Amino acid sequence: MGKFIVQRFLAALVTIWIATIAVTILIHLVPGDPVRIMYGSFQTTPEELEAIRVRLGLDQPIWRQYIMYIGRLLQGDLGNSIVGDQPVLDILLTRFPATLSLTLASLAIAVVVGMSLGFLAAYKRGTWVDVSSMVLAIVGVSMPHFWLGLLLLFLFALQLQWLPVAGGDWRSLILPAMTLGLANAAVLARLTRSAMIDIFDQDFVRTARAKGLPKSIVLYRHALRSGLVPVVSMLGLQFAYLMGGAIVVENVFAWNGVGRLAIEAVFARDYPLIQGFILFFATIVALASVVIDVAYAFLDPRIRYS
Amino acid sequence: MTPEMTQAPLLSVRDLTIAFGKGAFRNLAVQNLSYDLMPGETLAIVGESGSGKSVSSMALLGLLPPRSATIEGGSALFEGKDLLHLPEGEIRGIRGDRITMIFQEPMTSLTPVLRIGLQLTEALVEHKDMSKAQAEARAKEMLELVGLDDPERRLKQFPHELSGGMRQRVMIAMAMAADPAILIADEPTTALDVTVQAQILDLMRDLKHRFGTSIILITHDMGVVAEMADRVVVMNRGRKVEEGPVAEIFSAPREAYTKKLLDAVPRLGAFAAAAAPRTVVAQPKQVSGRLVHTSGMNKTFRESGLFASKSTGTAAMQDVGFDLDAGETLALVGESGSGKSTTGRAVLRLLELDSGVIEVDGTDMRKLGTNAMRKARREMQMIFQDPFASLNPRISAGRLVAEPMVIHGLSSGKEMEDRVEQLFLRVGLESDHIRRYPHEFSGGQRQRLSIARALSVNPKLIVADEPTSALDVSVQAQVLDLMLELQQSLGLAYLFISHDMAVVEEMAHRVAVMRRGRIVEIGPRQAVLNDPRHPYTRALLAAVPVPDPGRTRGALPVIDAATLPMGALAEVAPQHQVAQ
Amino acid sequence: MVHGSSTAELADTLATSGAARKRSFWRALLASPSGLIGLFVVALLVFCAIAAPVIAPYDPLRMAAGPRLDPPSMGYIMGTDDFGRDVFSRILYGARLTLQIGVIAVGISLTCGLLLGLVAGYSSGWTERVLMRLVDVLFSFTEIVIALACLAIFGVGLTNAMIAIGIASIPFYARVTHSVVLVEKGKPYFEAAIAAGASHVRLIFIHLLPNVVPTLIVIGTLGVSTAVLAAAGLSFLGLGAQPPQPEWGFMLSSSRDLISRAPWMMIFPGLAIAVTVLGFNLLGDGIREALDPRQRQR
Amino acid sequence: MDRRHLKPLWRRPVLSAAIALPLAVTGVAAGAQELVWARYGDISSLDPHRATSTLSMQVWDQIYDTLLSFDMEGTPGPNMAKSWEVSEDGLEYTFTLNEGIMCHDGSAFDANDVKFTIDRAFGDTPSLTRTSWGPITDVSVIDPLTVKVTLGSTFGAFLPFLADSFSSMVCDSNTADTFGSTTAIGTGPFSLVEWVKGDEIVLDTNPDYVNWGEPIDNAGPPQFDRLIIRTVPEPQTRLAALRTGEVHIAEPPFDDVAAIKEAGELEIMVAENTGQNVFWEFTISRPPFDDIRARQAVAYATDAQMAIDIIYGGLSQREWCPIARGVFGNDQEFCKQYGYEYNPEKATELLAEMGYGPSNPLETTMFVWTGGNRHKLAEIFQAQLAQVGIKAAIEIMDIGTMNARVKEQNESPDADTPGTFDMMTWSWYDPDILYQLWHSPGAYSGYQTPELDAMLEETRTTIEPEARLKKVQAVIKYLMENAVHVGLYTPGWEWVFAVRPEVEGFKIGPFLHPNFQDVTLSDG
Predict the structure, then answer these.
(1) Which residue from C186, C170, C195 is spatially nearest to C122, judged by alpha carbons?
(2) Is the residue at A288 inside a domain?
(3) Residue D114's domain is classified under what CATH number?
(4) Which of B53, B550, C86, C96 has the fewest CB atoms within 10 Å, measured from its CB?
(5) Partners of residue B95 on adjacent β-strands
């Protein structure tokens, strides 16, 4: 178990490490002179550009740049943004709680709605309940986040005026979280259903039934607990998808998270911010998957006791 | 033990009919099946795959897959109630209490995320109104009865911490804990090694006497039937073929199907008197000389992965070595995990050895380069266990058989077409099979296809890895006959890998017994099978169930894994070597 | 050593009773509701794309083809946008872009993913470990972030967005290919081919590829829907299609300011995306079922 | 991780948000009045030398004060500096400061702070305002209330600049690294409480504030307690929030302005004399726009009046000059005689001369700044250009990116793609903008000739208004005849405000400086 956690953690570190390489390379893939593209404002002189180049270390060979980058990174320095010249990490950290709350709220919705729907469909396999849940799920999977968001906005905020449209109020979290959560609930429902159907076909469920146990015990004690294992193992990926989906949804609802920041940064070609965002995103997703893997290990004794 | 025929039956099944699918896809799995089960009796339901033997028993407990299977008719009277027409609540009360069940797959039949203790006690708590403590006491008692040590600890363990045999013991403990009237055992030992099978069968017999339970034993294995059953129901394609006391069925089967089934069963000892496999062709091709020489083969499988430590690994082969002459069959026998398949693959260089020598026809295989190795493969072909998986599903039968010839550039065009057709006929297939795809063939036909494919390049050596163990016995007999016939007419050498001692006795010139990656005994068939010197070989032979109700298997020799000699081989008789 | 097991027996009975194995792929596809609907939607999309100039009542780019912000009516069945362009005509022409997105993006990711997965899966050893580790890492970045990074490099635009999405999905296709290759490689028929002396080329092209392709057809079809969604998303964010392209996601984004005044500008492009994506999802599911009859029992 | 970073991360905990937020909203003493102003974007920096966006400037206006201030006509007059003297040669300016100006941190504002501000603008990298300050060579503190600025050459736009937000006076206590991002100490009517990036800027009334010269009634501090400047990107969302009262002042969706006016629920205020100018500008270092005919064809092919009527519905005006209405030298009649009236036939003709035709359209790319419905405007221009055979792709980008891209385009004469053109936007209070844009090396390394350079220099060195006007108009004529800088419309961004009825006294000064000092909030 301990070894398992250490392994997962090391794997996460490798992910982050590769991300650092990727973002260092990123800036060199930009066609043209990155310094001129980033800082070549109307009032900068060639000398100033050169000074910036030296300050950013972009005059150095790439491996030196990488070492410098890692060195700064270890001190929590992700560089400064071009727009406003502020520490990238500060910007990301002030914006991240909004994204985290959106992502977690959506995850909660996705898990509750998706898993129950998937479980129900698997349990009622072949009946109208199954068919209609799966039709619902495939429609949900096919629904663009941003469209669902606009529809919800149109309906609940503008037409019915049930929910506020702006402000940091918790109620303004409802629509974005629903948008992101429901779309992913559909994915989760499909995953849960097929995982549960696999489980229902397992020999041990037959054994449990053969013991004459009540349906509820067969379902919850034997099937669900085992069925949860693969589903939970997929939550790490789900979290990553949600984080990715948040980028779009934040822009629909003007939710002030890192996703909106990322789009702003792309428009502004604010490469230090883009680099920081990618690294930050990769780190969060990697750490989240460690957490979920550990949770998964706790659910599955085959990992817990080895 | 003969049951009193005057006694009222405990369970009386009448005209049971079960169908899968609906409408045009309706398919009768069981048709008008009737039988009685007497108190204290063991009734074996025998049949090959697709006979409906399992389905009919599952139906009794309402365990058929819902929505795909329907009970179309019949009754099953048990204690005055018709099991087939009870409401779910009532049948559930009987299930797991009055009638219990054990299944074939001990590895997957226990819930992996729950402790053994909970799985053992939950039915008792449910049906017997026991408190948790009472149920646990009973569970512990049962674990001891089924021969598991340290029951206290077992209760806290998870299924993956137990071996297959231990899990089946837990399943039996679970099934017997409620002191049921009927135990339905669905192929309870099929997935187990022969030595473990013998122990489990002994255990079941013992418990049956202790509890007076009636058993419905579902099996395909006539040996197990002969050993366990009082009466037998023979099924084929959903129908009952014949029913009768076990002795009668074996000694005087009335139906042709039963006769055929019994004839096909390989019996250990049937060929004990012969020094070589029976001759099936008029003029066997004469070949001689050493074909294969191996020595000192070692292989350890290591976990791969970015963080895997290099030190751990399982030794699949340790210091394995043997010789094989042209036209000869060397059988590699052993239980699962003994390294016999690994050895077969190593000889063909399908896996790389850590060390060792493999010479085929005097060429050191391990020194060959990629291209030379590819050429060398012409001389040695392989037949695999699973005829379903070993044929590429997207290539037609004709192309599959031709493939080795194409690879080695042996023939082409019309000549090749003729040769393929000839091969098809040679292995007992028809020429219009050539254009079909593998999934359109039955299991036996596919194995014939594999053989034709192996033969296409006129190899000298064929490694056959459990070539018949996925086949029904009647098909197995045909394939074995074919292999013998081919060997003798073509002068083939077989490295024949098998777990089945009776098959080995039928096929082998010489036998090598493997255990945990080592050869513990090797020698001519009569020497090894009739005069086994190694305790493990003896145990292996003693554990084989005998398909003859008249003969009882002797007591199982107790083997102590710790003291088994597992050292280097030493000659005890001419060519007969045993580990010291 | 699995001998006449009860589950195998059951499966056998089921398979023969289904008789699906014997039916041709197309019959199976058309027999499944998802396959049928999916095929219909995709065919409709292709039809719209090809016949757009014939069906479309107006030039999709023509401003003041009608009054501004005119609600749906007989003349403009999906209304007009804020430039007086006919929304219906724009949606029809948008189908062309959508198809293009699907084909190009999936083409890129499928080709590269297949190659990577095949190389990794076939080679094994260090090549495999390093490649797949890299692919896993990229995969965990999620597609949208990779696409964003690509767009940050290439600059915005629909063509760049297609390429970015194509690149972003490579890890997914590589993973699937890799796992299918591993499964196929583990099957005895592959070992049988090695034992028969097959060369690398033969092993890859005769034995592996044909068995990998069906899975890739399925995920490629499903992948079209992902690509369409992603491209529409990027266009919605302003990173993809640029004016005056009648791309559906871009049309949606221009509807945002007018959501209460002209909801039809939001509803129809969204519907077009959703139906197209649904169509490819259903078709993918349908093909999967048709290729694997056992799946259908689920 | 640095500890410093932990605090902001948890300042707004996820789950306790529901409890914490109502507190935050009413966190000021009971009955405190706050005003919420919603805008489409956030500021770039609180440091006036590190940003150029109007969004940023409007916030600096609240936190900082300037030495001089514009009256409603846009003429600079005294403010923090109560008087000033100019030397004979026009190279030395001596300012006398008002007594008793207090910085937000409680320190007194004096000549040292002025020197600190100007030195910073010149010494610091990257300072975006350096050239705007003019040819300053020295700043010296004569006494605490007197400061002398020396110029290298005469500079006609110097005084107006000192009334502009770019010259915001920064207190010399702003030495921390955090200046510009989390701290900002000025002397303006409001002091910084918090800037939650991307979300809101919270400002509290500065009780010590004295209005020395702003053209408004209130001489003291603002009459409400807190100003919250919130980022709400979606126009529809801003409108909805205005209607519910979550927001008091915001830019409405342009398409809804007519309906809002009709309903009378909100007051619509349109800024005048914004100094904003939207114009065509071209990459002249390579084809096609190295040829004047191509530039003229674009100019003739655009019907700006029709476009702004559709998109802004009368909120914006056709602008013929390269400098906007309200700026010295703007004269519609004068400019129009050199301007390009919509004339597609003429455009087609010019293109045909160059060898372009229906089968061989002129292909190019139009850069457009995001927001303000400019992308829609661009779409109309695109369609208009298409009619004469110019196939222009549209690329929408952030203004900073656009500035860099335009410059990069001009500096890549050998690129194999056709040269681009752009809908450039500038707001300036003085025709000196023309110098900054077109005098070599030029803001964008664009169109330059020695002739133009000489003419531009004269606009700087000529101080006397009558004479300067001549010089400026000569430049305007030159730029327009060469189709270098083709005016389109004014104003162009953030100039329309919808105001809730309970807000009274909201004013917009010249050059788009929103002013809250006269604002009173009735209970609404």
Answers:
(1) C186
(2) no
(3) 3.40.190.10
(4) B550
(5) B99
Distance of CA B167 to the CA centre of its chain: 18
Mutant choice from A33, A36, A43 vs D, greatest count of D C-beta within 10 A: A43
Q: D20 in a domain, yes or no?
A: no
**Domain total in chain D:** 2
What pLDDT digit, counting tens, does each position of A205-221 carry? 989 989 989 888 898 88
Evaluate if residue D322 carries a pLDDT over 90. yes
Spell out the residues 6+ positions from residue D349 whose beta carbon is closer than 8 angstroms to its own. Answer: none
Inter-axis angle of helices A128-142 and A115-123, nearest 10: 150
**Chains D and A are in contact, defined as 3 or more C-beta pairs closer than 8 angstroms:** yes
Q: Give the Cα separation of A46 and D127 in Å (integer).
A: 14
Chains that touch C (3 or more CB pairs under 8 A): A, B, D
Under the banding of pLDDT at 50, 70 and 90, the label for residue D114 is very high
- Give B180-199 pLDDT, tens digit per residue: 999 999 999 888 888 888 88
Helix (H, G, I), strand (E, B) or coil at A183: helix
CB distance from C59 to chain D under 8 Å? Answer: no
In a domain, A103, yes or no: yes
The full set of domains in chain C, from first to last, is 33-49+88-296 (1.10.3720.10)
Give the per-residue pLDDT at C19.
36
A207:B110 CB<8 A: yes
Cis ω before A230 (30° cut-off from 0): no
Out of A295-299, B61-65, D18-22, D295-299, the most confident range is: D295-299
b/e burial code for range C254-285 (CB count within 10 A of at least 16 → b): bbbbbbbbbbbbbbbbbebbbebbbbbbbbbb
| Contact call for A212 and B126, based on CB within 8 A | yes
Q: Does residue D285 sit in the same domain as residue D182? A: no
Instruction: Report the CATH number at residue A128.
Output: 1.10.3720.10
Give the gap in angstroms from C-alpha C71 to the nearest C-alpha of chain B.
Answer: 50
- CA-to-CA distance for B191 and B186, rounded, in angstroms? 11
Interface test with A, best of B57, B61, B113 (most A CBs within 10 A): B113
Using the beta-carbon criterion (under 8 Å), do B127 and A212 form an inter-chain contact? yes
Phi-psi region of B557 (alpha: psi -120 to 50; beta: other; left: phi over 0): beta
Amino acid at D59: V
Rg for chain A (alpha carbons), in Å? Answer: 24
Q: What is the pLDDT of residue A274?
A: 92
- Both D284 and D372 in one domain: the answer is yes
Residue D133, Cβ neighbours under 10 Å: how many?
Answer: 22
C237 touching chain D per CB within 8 A:
no
Helix, strand, coil share (%) of chain D residues, nearest 5: 30, 25, 45
B529-534, Cβ contacts within 8 angstroms, sequence gap of 24 or more: B529/B268, B529/B272, B529/B501, B529/B504, B529/B505, B530/B272, B531/B573, B531/B576, B533/B572, B533/B576, B533/B578, B534/B564, B534/B565, B534/B578, B534/B579
Q: Which of C243, C259, C260 sits opposite D375 (nearest CB)?
A: C243
What's the rounded Cα separation, in Å, for the pair D325 and A259?
39
Question: Is residue D424 within 8 Å of residue D366, measured between CB atoms?
Answer: no
How far is the alpha carbon of C188 from chain B, nearest alpha carbon, in Å? Answer: 4
Q: Per this entry, what is the length of chain A?
A: 306
Q: Is the ipTM of this complex over 0.90?
A: no
Q: How many domains does chain A have?
A: 1
- For residue A254, the SS3 value is coil
The phi and psi torsions of B434 (rounded to 5 degrees) equal -60, -35
DSSP D208-231: T---SS-SSS--SS-SSSEEEEEE
Nearest CA in chain D to C262: D255
Average pLDDT score over residue span A33-59: 75
Yes or no, beta carbons of C3 and B377 under 8 Å apart: no
Quick check: D376 and C256 CB within 8 A? no
CB contact under 8 A, A19 and C137: yes
pTM of the model: 0.85
